[in-house]
Amino acid sequence: MLGPVPPAVARVRNFYLRNILLKIEKNLPHSKVKEMIIKVSDRFLSHVEHRSLLIQIDVDPV
Questions:
Q1: What average pLDDT does range 1-26 have in this prediction?
Q2: Which end of the chain is more exposed for a tag (fewer CB within 10 A), N or C?
């Protein structure tokens, strides 16, 4: 895991952006990885102080 780090443009329309890069082994099934990411994201957003955050997942961002 690398990040969170600000991207080149760190704020857009009062949204503060951060990037987190996850490197995952190729032999893991995509469905299992997707399930784990969704579970962690849901748990994170269940906390009151994080509910205003927006999480976007980009697969293979090159």
A1: 87
A2: C
